[in-house]
């Protein structure tokens, strides 16, 4: 176990990085959405952004400590990321586009983890 | 929607309270396990306590904002709580017994939520 | 130390409960603010609600494990709760009023903790 | 504000990255400490690792959304990181050394942020 932790395999680090990046882009997109003229149309999107940020942070922490529940946590993370990407895709601004990309990438990484 | 939020139904509040209590007992049990003479035997238990605390906190927050992913989050929470209860049940001290009870109660509440 | 943990003093539990309640009311108020007609006027308030919820959750977890940094964490929590109460007080709806009350109560409890 | 968010200045990103890295190394070190032969001597260190991980995650999230409380949150983060670095420095293993380095780097970045 220790050897694995000291030399983390590429899969773990790739997914952990995707979760950290997705958390950041969700919070940035949340802030930006709040100041958009059509904020009223973004209620569902904003809620999903906060969900996605929290679940990505939980997944990143769990992977870093090699939790025994990485498969289940990454499964949830993939679901929430996919939904958030879908909501963000409804808006044309740059921050939603970038966030949707990060969500999709994170969902892909999480799907790889849950099947390990 | 607003009416529901202003007068939260009993189911939500009951599950949210169970998650908050379980988070607290997991963190207390984590602290107590660290100072037990057989701490070396508790590595798995301690890891599960941190997982369970984090997932319970995530679930409580998601329920409070009426997230669209409560079913999936509570599903994960029930799984992690059941595992944590199982680990805590291996130890005879009072804090592990109390924590296992809180985990089982939280898992039951979460199973009710995910089927709503 | 163990004796204290098994029989937590009233001060800890009172502050921990105030943090849990404040987290819940901030997330509920966040959700409600998003669907208010004047959501555009609430950008600052909504940001403070998310800050306050996150810091209250961090403080609750730290108190439950008897962290060595409760004084500093509760100091931050009191500052963020006061600011959030101030923002919520600018709006007349029930959820903002209830949230502001919970924030002020939590700030008071946190100030007692940091001076222990 | 939007321009700043779309083109985040180097200071924010540098501190946010340091917080994310410190969170990861604290959780990895937590896991490794639990399986060390002298785990009983590491109670204080393990508690600080969990504190540090949680506060770093809170700070990263707050910076990503350009919270109004970054100065206070980064001030707390610097304090907790310094303490965690000090505890980790008492142990000679590679994971504690790497974690102490990440904590010191994060504390330095946080001190720059709180004075902005």
UniProtKB/TrEMBL annotation, chains A, B, C, D:
InterPro entries named in the record: Csp_YhjQ (IPR005560), YHJQ-like (IPR044543)
Residues in coiled coil: none
Pfam families noted in UniProt: Csp (PF03860)
Protein's recorded name: Four-helix bundle copper-binding protein
Native species: Clostridium muellerianum
């Amino acid at each position: 176990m220790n050897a694995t932790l000291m030399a983390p395999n590429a899969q773990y680090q790739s997914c952990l990085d995707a979760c950290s990046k997705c958390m950041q882009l969700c919070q940035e997109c949340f802030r930006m959405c709040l100041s958009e003229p059509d904020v009223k149309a973004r209620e569902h999107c904003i809620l999903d952004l906060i969900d996605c940020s929290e679940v990505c942070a939980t997944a990143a922490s769990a992977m870093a400590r090699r939790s025994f529940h990485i498969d289940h946590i990454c499964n949830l993370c993939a679901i929430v990321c996919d939904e958030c990407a879908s909501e963000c895709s409804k808006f044309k601004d740059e921050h939603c586009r970038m966030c949707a990309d990060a969500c999709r990438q994170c969902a892909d990484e999480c799907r790889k983890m849950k099947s390990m």
